[in-house]
Amino acid sequence: MIRNNLSSSLLSDAVDELSALPGIGRKSALRFALHILKQPKENVERFGRSIIRMREEIRYCSVCNMISDTPVCPICSDRKRDRTVVCIVESIRDVISIENTGEYRGLYHVLGGIISPIDGVSPSDLSIDSLVKRLEDSETEEVFMALSTTMEGETTAYYLYKKIARFNLRVSTIARGVGFGDELEYTDEVTLGRSITNRQPFMPVNQ
Questions:
Q1: For the whole model, what pTM was predicted?
Q2: From start to end of 25-98, where are the E strands?
């Protein structure tokens, strides 16, 4: 174990915290910790303050649940966005991925997950009620479901389709350039962009 070879408990503690981050093993954590140790004190303090401020001050948009520095995020506040289309995504990371393609100019709604009984995630754990309420009083004409093409994503899409059917909106989904089982976060920008541009009407498998 790396911990046993370290001469400083302070360094060991830092490695423990860094290695708790997703995708960071203990070797990488040690490399990061040693890099930080060599930086000027003011740089490290600035780094630490930015993390603390992010955790304490960041908020979630009251409209779409995207992270924001203000009560309503810049996307929802931008009057140049197409307000007739709402793209439903699983996570904040998906919004970032879609925005990076430059192919979508509508609004978003972040569910905060997808329905997954195995993981204990039910519809009540997601921001579905707020989506329905939002659609009741909006100028939305199309709901674009850009969910992961996994079994859980398909289940969530069908559930949402049934929930919003009464609004008589156009319901679309990403084109099959994103293969079944893929998550948007790991789809390259070109493929994702094309799948958005060529999105298709949502076809429930039960119909």
A1: 0.82
A2: 59-60, 67-68, 82-89
